[in-house]
Amino acid sequence: MNDIRALIERDVEEFTTLRRDLHQHPELAFHEIRTGGIVADLLEKWGYTVERNIGTTGIVGQLRHGEGSAAIGLRADMDALPILEATGLPYASVNSGVMHACGHDGHTTMLLAAAKTLAERRNFNGTVNLIFQPAEEYGRPDSGAARMVADGLFEKFPCDAVFGIHNMPGSPQGQLQFYDGAMMASSDSVSIKITGRGGHGAQPHTTADPIVATAAIVMALQTVVARNVNPLDAAVVTVGVMQAGIANNVIPENARIELTVRCFKPDVRDLLEQRIRDLVATQAQSLGVKADIDYCRGYPALQNSTEETEFARAIGEQFAAEGNFVAQTTPMTGSEDFAFMLEKCPGSYIFLGNGDQPGPVSRALHNDGFDFNDANIVEGAAYWVALTEEFLNGKTGRKN
Fold first, then answer.
1. With b meaning 16 or more CB within 10 Å and e meaning fewer, what string describes 17-42?
2. Whole-angstrom distance, CA of residue 267 vs CA of residue 18
3. Are 58 and 163 in contact (CB under 8 A)?
4. Which among 51, 3, 59, 16 is positioned nearest to 35, based on CA atoms?
5. Are 65 and 125 in contact (CB under 8 A)?
6. What backbone torsions phi and psi does residue 196 show, to the nearest 5 degrees?
7. Taken in order 217, 218, 222, 225, is the CA torsion positive or negative?
């Protein structure tokens, strides 16, 4: 492992400069034109066959070596978030209101550093598919991963397994964390419009008050998880938006609420949707208003497959510094569209500690003060190289 690290450390200044350039020029979902161009040009320079514009702005670089038939996929996300950066860093975003607040600039750089090292070493027997994905932050069922899959990603670039890494602020820098099973939750969005009959606030008896109905619905929704979901199954129903009215003496015609719904099991997901629909309908009917529900299923739960996770964990245990390794971490109710790829191909998603010292690297993801830890460029890239070479060379007892 040390020889891999040494090779990447040789170019660490180059890749640190690249990471900070990507941070300074963030691009939103499906607008990763500059980023994708840099990625594609570098991959071609290093000898990869490159296909552009998969799933709108996605990039795949492929490198074959030897006669082996095994193929691995490594994925990095490229998009940024609609956040106004407040880090004050010299390489802070120049695109006002757009920021790499989730570390995708670092994920892209780690995979590029691995790409260069794999091409230089060529110490594998098979095919490497490097997947640079757009629009992970899109939050809709037609996200970057979903579009790449629909665009024939795994038909054009067959993989025996696919892997992804995400940085994890608050965890020790370089710590590798694994999980066998449902690691991240599904994420659904619900928008509910309540239509009543407006009127004067002094004459409520002449109205059908959508605010009262909305309040009743919000309270009823608190029973969905508490009284319908098995206590051994995790689920979340959160009302994040509640809007109605513009004056204190006017009962409005309409009100609106929006929810986020999270869980880890498909049957629980179905149960949550049915109970939410039933409760909203009955509460609205009982109070004489109309409820229109727009229920949008977003990302599925991210399900790591057992064999591939065991393999990734075995490499991580050899690779990680002493004690900087978590064999089975805690699942998260956040969501991740890499789940769409895992529905089509076995694989595993891995967390990489971004740092637990006070400062930008330990700020929460999606925080306007967050920054990716450049020390992880070497750690992440070296792990990618070790994982790829071991996988394609059939070591550590991997089944073929």
1. ebbbebbbbbbbbbbbeebbebbbeb
2. 44
3. no
4. 59
5. yes
6. -120, -140
7. positive
Given a cut of 70, is residue 398 above it in pLDDT?
A: no
Instruction: Give per-residue burial for 152-163: e unless 16+ CB within 10 Å, then b.
Output: ebbeebebbbbb
8 Å CB contact between 178 and 353: no
| Bridge partner list, 72 | 128, 161
Q: Which burial class, exposed, middle or buried, applies to 286 when counting CB atoms under 10 A from its CB (0-12, 13-18, 19+)?
A: exposed
Cβ count near 307 (within 10 Å): 14
Q: If residue 354 lies in a helix (H) or strand (E), which one and from where to where?
A: strand 347-355
Residue bearing tokens 């020390």: 375
CA-nearest of 275, 270, 276, 271 to 293 is: 276
Angle at alpha carbon of residue 144, lines to 140 and 147, rounded to 5°: 90
- Cα end-to-end span (Å), the chain: 24
Distances (CA, A) of 225 to 101, 105, 129, 261, 296: 31, 37, 41, 10, 19
The whole-number average pLDDT for the span 288-307 is 98
Q: The whole model's pTM is what?
A: 0.95
Query: At which residue do the structure tokens 């660490």 appear?
Result: 12
Collapsing DSSP to helix, strand or coil, 185 comes out as: coil
| For helices 12-24 and 33-45, angle between their N-to-C axes, nearest 10 degrees | 160
Q: What is the pLDDT of residues 91-115, one digit of tens each?
A: 999 999 999 999 999 999 999 999 9
Q: What percent of the chain has pLDDT over 90?
A: 96
- pLDDT (tens digit per residue) in 329-349: 999 999 999 999 999 999 999
pLDDT for position 400: 40
Q: Give the single-character DSSP code of 364.
A: P
CA distance linking residue 134 with residue 262, whole number of Å:
23
Tell me the one-letter amino acid at 139: G
Among residues 283, 281, 260, 261, the alpha carbon closest in space to that of 271 is found at 261
pLDDT at 396 over 60: no
Q: What tens digit of pLDDT does each residue of 114-157 get?
A: 999 999 999 999 999 999 999 999 999 999 999 999 999 999 99
